[in-house]
């Protein structure tokens, strides 16, 4: 407990209206950038692959496996274990980021006796390493899929309540290569969140949902401000997903604009793997949900921000 207390203190190139049309690949993206890694106090959890955080009475467990994947995103028995540093991060407003670390000896790790709170798991991939994370959430089996994403190999939020001990699994598959962003797919029809390009390149500031094609304008990066709040950066020009406030007047419009740190460019991500792999993306300024618009029932290519209601058109999947 003493160790943990010291740590706690220390988001087509398709013509609009034609989502099924062939897509042109971007040929002049912004210069290569990356998502900054978390910085903060990191303490050793011990010499093995397990660390107790001291909350024995109501403590929960965050555990998982790290393996060398064949690229399909699903852990299989013939795939070898990977030994990497694994960090459990938390964020305190007055202190910032802090973490406990262990090593996944034998491909397994565990953080036990974890107090209630919000956390993220990171598998540390050295900058010089020719490794990347495999496909996120592939296969539909939370016991065997990979749960980390992006260049920094970070999980979505892991939120542990105070109602009693819980166990959460966060696994990580590694492949040769370089990690990129992720597509963000609507649960309503599996179309991808898209920085629109109705007249070709470059994309506009508009955002819609279109058939997935893997272009940079459908690639998104999560830059975590806290364990639950992120900026969502577009892969084409690294601008921020934004609930638009022209003249400081709230609208339901969503765009992509240069990042300025405002709350309308920050999004609270709710995800609970025990309830499925989908996530709800909520604007930090208004508390409204990212929504694939469905004014007449079936989902359209429009994307806006509206009062949260729990429908499929307000649920999204991060995909590799």
Average residue pLDDT: 88
CATH architecture of the largest domain: Trefoil
Q: How much of the sequence is in beta strands?
A: 35-45%
Number of strands: 25
Structural class: mainly beta
What general outline do the C-alpha atoms trace? globular
Report, as a whole number of angstroms, the end-to-end distance.
Answer: 37 Å
- Please count the helical segments: 1
Descriptors:
five-stranded mixed beta sheet; mainly beta; disordered N terminus; 37% strand; Immunoglobulin-like; globular; single chain; 2 domains; Trefoil (Acidic Fibroblast Growth Factor, subunit A)
Could you explain the architecture of this structure?
The protein is an all-beta fold and 320 residues long. The chain folds into two domains: 40-176, Immunoglobulins (Immunoglobulin-like, Sandwich); 181-319, Trefoil (Acidic Fibroblast Growth Factor, subunit A) (Trefoil). It is 2% helix and 37% strand. It contains one helix and 25 strands. The longest helix is centred in the first third of the chain and has 8 residues, at 2-9. The two termini are 37 Å apart.
């Amino acid at each position: 407990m003493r160790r943990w207390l010291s740590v706690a203190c220390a988001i087509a190139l398709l013509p609009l209206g034609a989502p099924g049309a062939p897509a042109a690949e971007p040929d002049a993206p912004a210069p290569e950038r990356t998502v900054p890694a978390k910085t903060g106090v990191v303490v050793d959890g011990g010499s093995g692959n397990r660390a107790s955080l001291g909350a024995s009475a109501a403590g929960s467990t965050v555990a998982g496996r790290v393996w060398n994947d064949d690229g399909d995103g699903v852990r299989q028995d013939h795939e070898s274990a990977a030994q990497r540093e694994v960090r459990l991060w938390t964020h305190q407003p007055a202190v910032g980021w802090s973490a406990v670390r262990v090593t996944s000896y034998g491909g397994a790790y565990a953080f036990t006796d974890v107090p209630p709170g919000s956390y993220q798991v990171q598998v540390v991939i050295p900058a010089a390493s020719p490794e990347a994370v495999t496909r996120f959430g592939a296969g539909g089996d939370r016991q065997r899929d990979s749960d980390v994403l992006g260049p920094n190999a970070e999980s979505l939020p892991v939120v542990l309540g105070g109602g009693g001990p819980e166990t959460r699994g966060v696994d990580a598959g590694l492949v040769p290569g370089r990690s990129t962003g992720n597509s963000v797919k609507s649960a309503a029809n599996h179309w991808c969140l898209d920085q629109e390009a109705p007249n070709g390149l470059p994309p506009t500031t508009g955002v819609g949902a279109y058939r997935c094609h893997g272009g940079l304008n459908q690639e998104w990066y999560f830059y975590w401000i806290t364990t639950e709040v992120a900026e969502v950066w577009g892969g084409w020009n690294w601008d921020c997903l934004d609930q638009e406030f022209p003249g400081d007047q709230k609208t339901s419009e969503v765009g992509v604009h240069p990042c300025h740190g405002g709350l309308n460019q920050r999004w609270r991500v709710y995800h609970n793997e025990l309830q499925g792999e989908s996530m709800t993306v909520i604007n930090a300024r208004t508390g409204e949900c990212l929504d694939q618009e469905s004014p007449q029932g079936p989902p359209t290519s429009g994307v806006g921000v509206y009062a949260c209601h729990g429908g499929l058109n307000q649920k999204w999947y991060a995909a590799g």
